[in-house]
Amino acid sequence: MTHHEPTIAAILRQLAGEYHGPVEERRVLERVLEQRPSNAKNPFATIRERLRWDGLALGWLRLGRGQLMPLHIALHGLRFRCLPRDEDLGNGMLPLAHLLPFCGTRGMNFTLQDAWGRPLEFISLKPDEPHMNGMPAFAMNQWYSKVGFRSGDSIIVTVTRSDPLVLTMTRERREDFSASAVAKQDAELLEAILQRTQRTQSTLAPCDEIVLPIFATAPWRSAYPGTPWQHLVLRDERLTLVDDIFLTNQPLGALKLFNCAEVFEPPPRAADADEARDRALLAQIEALQHELHRARERDAEAGLWNGQVQRASATFGGFSEDDTNQHHLFDQLEDELVGGDWELDDDWDDDDDFDQPEGVVVDQATLQAAHERMLQLLPPETIARLNQARDEEAEVIIAQHLNMLLARAPDLFPRINILPITNEDETFESSFFGDWVEDDWDEDYDGNFDHFEDLFEDTNTSVSLDQSSDLIAQFYDYLLEMGKTSTTARARSRALKIYAEFLASYYGRTLAQGDYATLDECLFFYYPRRVNKTSERQVRDLCTALKQFYAFLIQRGVIEDDRFAEALWRRRDQVVRVVELYDQMTGDSPSFELLFERLFLPYTE
Fold first, then answer.
1. Other CB atoms within 10 Å distance of the CB of residue 442
2. Contacts of residue 549, Cβ cutoff 8 Å, sequence gap at least 6
3. 482 Cβ contact partners less than 8 Å away, ≥ 6 residues apart
4. Measured between alpha carbons, how far is 242 from 264 in angstroms, rounded to an integer?
5. How do 165-172 and 110-113 pair as beta strands?
6. Count of alpha carbons within 13 Å of 457, Cβ hemisphere only?
7. Which candidate, 390, 335, 342, places its Cα nearest to that of 491?
8. Among residues 116, 186, 414, 512, which is most buried (max CB within 10 A)?
């Protein structure tokens, strides 16, 4: 980059002021490259990353489905409601969490003022104020007294200016609130939140990525505001709000990423309610298992398989749902399919030589949560400097505030336990097996471990994946020849990866060697646990892609019988139900092991 060449951030800020409604993301990317050309293989990638992580700070909101909206347009005139807690009234504060995600996230500078135009004081976190419980907040004591605010009253917030962002608040008495006027709006909002949360590929989705796009495009965005979205989420068992910031539809139990108080804490659940929930789940599982057993029997009678259940992935879980080491085996295929223009993120590239200190959590959700919290703690002027800084400059700026961050939010800094170093030379074997290398081995388990080593040492896995990769690439070309769009062809081809990985990893087979038993095991045991977040549509798309792929292999003369794929496609509703039931199971439930065993029969026998 030359000295006078504009940065990507500067161009994106400029473009945000030139649009007055939704715009295709690709068009924005193209306009950035017009001012800042790139010779990279995928020149859009860097710009997309800036929009994904810093979009709000750069003036853009991602609506989804390839569309963006200037943030000042999304926020202008928007109205929402806050319901301060009795604890907030007692402290004379309004925690920032009440205003999320409309302000205060990802470095969004803003002013909160009263109806007379007087700004409210923002109280930053201070180490000598433990009563703040790690919550940044506005000082509201005088305002509460002036307007006669009482428990149960609401604060109606209106975005009166969007650039710079100014929010104006007024009081609404509890008795003036019209629940009937907002019932339809509340129902639409809750359903939209649920749908977006289900679609996201992240287990924990930041609320600005879920809630803000809904308000930006809703017909009631500037009308009489309904119930705060946080309250709607807390009342619905299908959704969970984590640390006031993240949304998930996964049953994660009492999850907390940070050791700090929350404004929106879920209501306590009675033990008998959890037991009743598990009993209902078990009843559904038993009913489904009866259907699965009968379906397998019918298909065996029809000659589609011999009725012999395969359990390679259950015998030894070498590739669990958390293992992504084998993903690189399809990198070449991904490059061929996407042409450098695939919009989803690449899989995390695990570094097998990196020793992660005990207790240090490096998953993406936690890193993103730490990023969000750090931005809330840093002074506004520091965030403004960060938004203008290059990467190396940002490191220096943040380093100047490390002592402050450590004092105010020590939970941002993981505790690393340094183990004592012995004088003995450590071999690979001793470092791998640890203290239990001398323990007595169970001979059967030893055999399983040998099988685990074979998965990596045997070249059959790699050869099988290479051959499956070639078949998938041919299928992709075939779909294009049949008039399918490149997006559809990519999606259906990419869906086949899960079965290809499964066959190669556990059976040393290619996709051309698939059969009823292994596909049943993949769909009803491996896939639900292997894929962290999936939807009903994705499950059905997978089954459809498999059916079409094997019909393609028949047409090309690669295989002689594709009836097994057709049969499993007819059972796609059952796969959906297995995935849905597994999603409803909570790991901290006393009944989890029983539910897990029953749901995944016969592979857990």
1. 10
2. 471, 472, 475, 492, 496, 511, 565
3. none
4. 9
5. parallel
6. 6
7. 342
8. 186
Q: What is the mean pLDDT of residues 574-598?
A: 87
Reported as type and span, the H/E element at residue 442 is none
- The token duo for 492 is 């259906």
Residue 381: its pLDDT value, please?
Answer: 65
CB atoms within 10 A of CB 585: 17
Q: Inter-axis angle of helices 44-54 and 25-35, to 10 degrees?
A: 120
Coil, strand, or helix at residue 3? coil
Return the number of other C-beta atoms located less than 10 Å from residue 433's C-beta: 12
Q: Of 16, 205, 207, whose CA–CA distance to 105 is shortest?
A: 207
**What does the H/E/C string look like for 343-387?**
CCCCCCCCCCCCCCCCCCCCCHHHHHHHHHHHHHHCCHHHHHHHH
**Sign (positive or negative) of CA dihedral 143, 147, 149, 152:** negative
- CA–CA gap between residue 507 and residue 498 (Å, rounded): 14
Which one has a higher pLDDT value, 429 or 117?
Answer: 117
Q: Strand, coil or helix: what is 316?
A: coil
- Alpha carbon of 290 to those of 57, 435, 571: distances in Å? 53, 45, 14
368: tokens are 């993103």
For residue 428, give every residue at least 6 positions away whose Cβ sits within 8 Å of its Cβ, in sequence order, or none: none
Q: How many CA atoms lie within 13 A of 362 on its CB side?
A: 11
Instruction: Return the bridge partners of 247, or none.
Output: 205, 241
Contact 372, 105 (CB under 8 A): yes
Stretch 345-365: mean pLDDT: 39
- Say how far residue 311 (Cα) sits from the centre of its chain: 30
Which tens digit of pLDDT belongs to each residue from 509-566? 999 999 999 999 999 999 988 876 677 888 999 999 999 999 999 999 999 999 999 9
The CA-CA-CA angle for residues 509, 510, 514, to 5°, reads 80
Predicted confidence band of residue 42 (pLDDT cuts 50, 70, 90): confident
Helix, coil or strand: residue 162? strand
> What pLDDT, on the 0 to 100 scale, is given for residue 109?
80
* Number of C-beta neighbours around residue 244 at 10 A: 21
Q: How far apart are CA 397 and CA 385, in angstroms?
A: 8
